[in-house]
Amino acid sequence: MLKFKNIFLVCLAFFISISAFSQNVKEPSGTPKEWSAGYTPFRIAGNLYYVGTYDLACYLITTTKGNILINTGLSSSAALIKKNIEQLGFKFSDTKILLTTQAHYDHMGAIAEVKRLTGAKFMVDEGDASVLKDGGKSDYALGGKESSYAPIIADKLLKNNDVITLGNFSIKMLHHPGHTKGSCSFIFSTLDKNRSYKVLIANMPSIVTEKNFEDVKEYPEIAKDYAYTFKSMKMLNFDIWLASHASQFNLHQKHKPTDGYHPEVFVDRNGYLQALNELEKAFKQKLKNRK
Question: For residue range 137-154, what is the model confidence (pLDDT) as tens digits?
Fold first, then answer.
């Protein structure tokens, strides 16, 4: 009995320390205000909802056995996301699985806190597992002396094309490295009373390092990974596409807080390909800069 009591106290101390760490984390200077500004949550299509900030996209997927939350924004955004989920009529405590599109502070800053509050299982692309353990300090582009989010160990590591199932719902993870070693997208189908939509939540492969690729010693495969990701993403088929940032898929041009339910505004393959092509141009220019 004493042994179990000691284990309980150790676990309790761990969760308290994580909570304190999350509350004391300071985002890097220059963090855009749009990343923490509020935005009215809304239903995108079927069982998919937007619960993020003005620019940091967070997605709630509801199922018969609880809900899936993809991304959490900044470390200070846990309360905002909780409010958004509850405003839609769902219970925050019903969050059972946590996912992220990349291990940067602007998308998973509140993961540890949400996990502590809900008990959800955190699953991540295996490429980002190591950088999560030190809270982003070892990230090749945004790393430094201090953690930019609470360190966390994933409950499950995911590989390319792994399928996550919860209740009556399944979602596939797609490995799209480059932006981080474990950047990933998610693809799934959702159904409303009118039709079924195939949805892609894309992690757009923007370049975050100022160094030439050959100078990124922490990530020698970076150029190869970017090339793979652009090729892979151009081959995807879907109806609706979304992204890690609202600005990347022009959310605010497609949707207003006063709008009703209009999934069709997010059917925009041309916009997706245009965005990819622009990013690929930047990638190819980076390659030209090689010594």
Answer: 999 999 988 999 999 999
